[in-house]
Amino acid sequence: MPVLHELCQALDLSRPVVLEKHVRELDQFSHTAFKPRDFMEPVLFDRFEIEIFPEKKEHESFLPRTY
After folding, report:
1. What is the predicted pLDDT for the residue at 57?
2. What pLDDT is recorded for position 64?
3. Which end of the chain is more exposed for a tag (fewer CB within 10 A), N or C?
4. 3-state SS track over 2-66
5. Which positions ≥6 away from 5 have C-beta within 8 Å?
């Protein structure tokens, strides 16, 4: 996951070990969480969450459609 590498580098974190569970959760739910045990080096947080937001298309609107 190149994006994860860039994110961790920007945050000065070691990269977590990406398991099949993480890939599956990202694929199904666009969200996953890494726990401290997923990192090779000690971290000072309880959870590192990633959520993927789809890009908004130009023609999409925030207003509900009326028929």
Report:
1. 75
2. 64
3. C
4. HHHHHHHHHCCCCCECCCHHHHHHHHHHCEEEECHHHECCCCCCCCEEEECCCCCCCCCCCCCCC
5. 15
Q: Name the phi and psi angles at 49, rounded to 5.
A: -105, 145
At residue 63, the pLDDT reads 64
Let me know: does 34 contact 16? Beta carbons within 8 Å: yes
Q: Would you kindly state where each structural domain of the chain is located, as residue ranges?
A: 2-51
**CA 50/CA 7 separation, integer angstroms:** 10
Residue 40's nearest CA partner among 16, 18, 65 is 16
**In this structure, which amino acid lies at residue 59?**
H
Amino acid in position 47? R
Query: Which residues of the chain, if any, have pLDDT below 50?
Result: none
